[in-house]
Amino acid sequence: MKIGDLAKRTGLSAHTLRYYERIGLLPYADRDRSGQRDFDASILTWITFIGRLKTTGMPIRDMLRYAALRDEGEATGAARRQMLEIHRERVRTQLAELRECLLVLDTKIAGYASDKQRTKQNDARPRSRKPLRSRPAGPVAH
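RESULT FIELD:
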């Protein structure tokens, strides 16, 4: 599969695919007689997986580490699993934080549902934009 076809099927640009190949996130593609990249269709599964890792916030350095372990074969299965378990915990923590933020947004939106439902608490705004002053330093106890 040529890089243009791969780009269309994955939604990534050809530039991104070449970059991923250059840094080692994608294996080097075979070349056809004219020197163009010719990707095997099996690369689609790998690209989908790294897309999920990216979406869930895995840093590219960790994706590169995972890809290197993958290239080493089955002997690295335990290390790859550990990486994914650690990442999964980060994703779960982020999901919990997002749920809390969503609850706050839902509550705020509900406050704007109608003029009758609005409250001063929902519309509270600081009256002044003056910076907060820090408290003067008091005597230090020794």
